[in-house]
Design goal:
The chain has 3 domains: 94 residues, Diphthamide synthesis DPH1/DPH2 domain 1 (Rossmann fold), CATH 3.40.50; 149 residues; 122 residues, Rossmann fold. It has a 5-stranded mixed sheet with strand order 2-1-3-4-7. The protein has 504 residues and is α/β, with parallel strands linked by helices. About 3% of the residues have low confidence. Helix 1 packs across helix 2, helix 8 crosses helix 12 and helix 14 packs parallel to helix 15. The protein has 15 helices and 21 strands. Helix content is 31%, strand content 16%. This is 2-(3-amino-3-carboxypropyl)histidine synthase subunit 2. InterPro entries: DHP2, DPH1/DPH2, DPH1/DPH2_1, DPH1/DPH2_3. Its cofactor is [4Fe-4S] cluster.
Amino acid sequence: MPNVDDVARWIVAHDFDRVALQLPDDALPRAASLVRALDAAVRARRLEGETELCVLADTTFGSCCVDEVAASHRGAKAVVHYGRACCSPTSRVPARFVFDKRAIDVKTCARALRAHARTLGGRDAGTSPRCVVAVADQAYAHATAALREELRRDGDAASGVEIVIAESTTVEVDPRRDGAIETRVVDEGRERVGSASFERPPGVATDACAFVWIGGAGPSMTHAMLVLGERAERFGGVAQYDPEVDDEVRVEADGSSEAARALKRRRFLIAKAKEANVVGIVAGTLGVAGYREMIANLRKMIANSGRKSYTIVAGKPNPQKLANFPEIEVYIMVSCELTALMDSREYLQPIITPYEASIAFTSGKMWMGEVKLDFASVPKPDNASTSAGDDGDAGEPEFSLISGSLDVRNPVEHARAMTEEDTDAPNGLELARRAEDALALRASGAAAAVVTSGAEYLMSRRTYVGLEPGPKRDEETGELADAPLEAARGLSGRAAGYSDERAS
């Protein structure tokens, strides 16, 4: 049972009258006892008034995010999130995080880190790091202060490699009600890995740091490996110390080969996205601050590149849900950092991150292997959008790693075509013209007609399109016009003998 005293003090200090408790699925059997204990602790500290507690079970999106949607259904003024969390800033309600606590021998861990630093410091000049950064899993964040003190008391300066313990994650977040993306603060001495951050020693460059993960294998560790990327590879990748099974630091962490393959797959997904003409934006969160602005920026970026975009809100995404939109060629996942990197091998279409989309949809931009998952790392599109009346060149051709051909995409021509389509859009003439052209292509046996809209896909590529439009006479002019078939009265009665069925 987690310690409830700190949570009770937080609730009373902010005078919350209705609080939602968000628990992971494996902790739901303990929800009743947790509510009783927390309610008793709050009542003992409140001088007046009451606090209503409710439990959020099935989350709307990822379980690591604060479920503001479900909390709003109960009118909660705050959320207490238990278990693994992405610690993303919220947009509407304040939240407090309560992480799991696992046992760790601080002295053994400090001894293992010092031995690892001495081993790295004994390498030849130019191949040894100047700093070893230890990033702890959230379950061991409670011991980072004690570990830092243990290293300070029994430090080993003879190795020449300083050991830095990343700061534990924050336990409280306040909402940013403006909904804007947080401006990236450039600090040459501080870096962030997931929800943890560390400050490099003075004069130590980014590429002079080696990294150690404290904890077991899991999504958080894979996330850290991908974010650190090539910086960690310079000194053999991210090392690992698992307090439950290890007495010393392992040079090769569990899942290192899988993380390397995942990084290579990101390059393939970006190459696939460059070929796409129809892009889907999946809203994987409705609570992380700045998601609305991020979606708006992506829409503008996609339009400037001459592509079409659709925005989809489908709760927790799965292959079955996204397969309902086969006309979409690539998806962009707008979500928190822990759930942004999806393994899309089971999906019909590739799924990329907003930062990868900024590379794929910007002509001439190359991916250098970096993985950036925060919204602030995505460049905003130019305010001066492409005008259909301006002259412009198609730009330099780009070689496609997928089709093996050169592709030239002219945003000016695409913008002009989109403007012409919008002119006819109010009367529905453009959509009707496209459907007619698609039917003509299908009737003539043309293969793989170019699809630029979902409606055109339904008319040109799907084998079954439902009832065909039939003739209907206009009531005023008497002229024939294409229109959907009129509804007809069906049979009535029992299947053994309908009322208007002729006797055989």
